[in-house]
Amino acid sequence: MSYIPHTEAERQQMLAAIGVTTIEDLFEAVPASHRFPALNMPQAMSEMEVTAEMQALAEANEHAGDFAIFRGAGAYHHFVPSVVNHILLRGEFYTAYTPYQPEMSQGTLQSIFEYQSMMCALTGMDAANASHYDGATSLAEAVTMAMEVTRHKRKKVILSHAIHPQYRAVVR
After folding, report:
1. Is the pTM of this model over 0.70?
2. Which among 21, 58, 120, 162 is most buried, taking Cβ atoms within 10 Å?
């Protein structure tokens, strides 16, 4: 449904019906000390004007890509091939859950099978998992698998300090 605002004539008619002349008259009972102060707002701008303004503000700053930055706990600039975005935009990849309807999940199951098969071929491993919810649980699963593969002969796991602290907490 479209939003159609009241005309000035309709506003005046409503105000007259309740016995006031302006919208501000409705707030006369509220002490001035409790009212929101008037704001000194600039004139409205078009989207193109806002974009140009934001671009000018951004250009006044240093560009992060020009410097080595060691903050972020492991979240650094990296290349993501454009095909990844196109694949992720497909509805069947919005969630790690497999759809319940067989006819809906067939494409998802096929793509997971293809991915796992390629990972096994690339790594030379007998099995690969493709249904983790996030990086932290994937890391924890990898540590668990490493422990199982070595039959718990080792009691310690060495993790890089570059790994995000929250991921490290999940592994613990």
Report:
1. no
2. 120
